[in-house]
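Entry 14. Structure prediction run on the chain below.
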Amino acid sequence: MLYGLKLVALGAVTLLASLLTVSFGLFDPYGKHVYCIKRLWSWLILTIGGVSLRVNGLDLIDPKRQYIFMVNHQSNLDIPVLIQSLPGFQLRWLTKKELLWIPLFGWALWAAKEIFVDRADRNDALRSLNKAKARMAGGISVVIFPEGTRSSDGRLLPFKRGGFLLAARTQTAIVPVAINGSGNILPKGDWRLRRGVVEVTVSPPVAAADHRSASSRTLSAQVRERIAADLAPIEGEANRQGCAEQAVAEERSSCARGPI
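Output returned:
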């Protein structure tokens, strides 16, 4: 019964936040004003769910600068976790275009000026990078889950190249961020939100090089290594082995994958 009430409260909060975002976002060209709605929503989601945060490394980044945050992805909870963990930043997500068609929720993402990308269309992916560049020029920081989807076991999946090309083309520093614990609280494929603690570790910014494919692979490997080092011990060891495996695979496949 108690958990049923929690689900109702979470649904009501999300519905109200979506309605407000759609209503006010139409008049907010960069989504900066409606971002306060997103911050309130994320706080309520974590509070109602009984989720607390431990954040390390905020002193390593400057809230007056724009960054590209590269984050491992374990759970749908990662978005409210990041919004609350990086309070000094206006964050926008590079997200898959399919979410746009979800009634109300997708509309709210559009009104909040998130950046949509069609991963099956290379030209659309490149246009999305240009949109991200324009958002950043307006004082926005971009969040990218370089794995492209949630990991089911906490191990890092192969990284896609799009975010690293964006960093190189805009000469924007990448901030690697490791999230530990969200996959246990709300696992992939599960709808039950458990109580617990999520730890977020922010690494020092990594300077972007030029946008040559070889440089983007090097940049990807460096960021992956930083994130892997800050994951839980067992997962971190497996992920460090995965870093070497991905480097070999990328060397063989070069640019065969799409940009996002």
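Residues 250-259 have pLDDT under 50 and may be disordered.
Filed with the rest of this week's runs.
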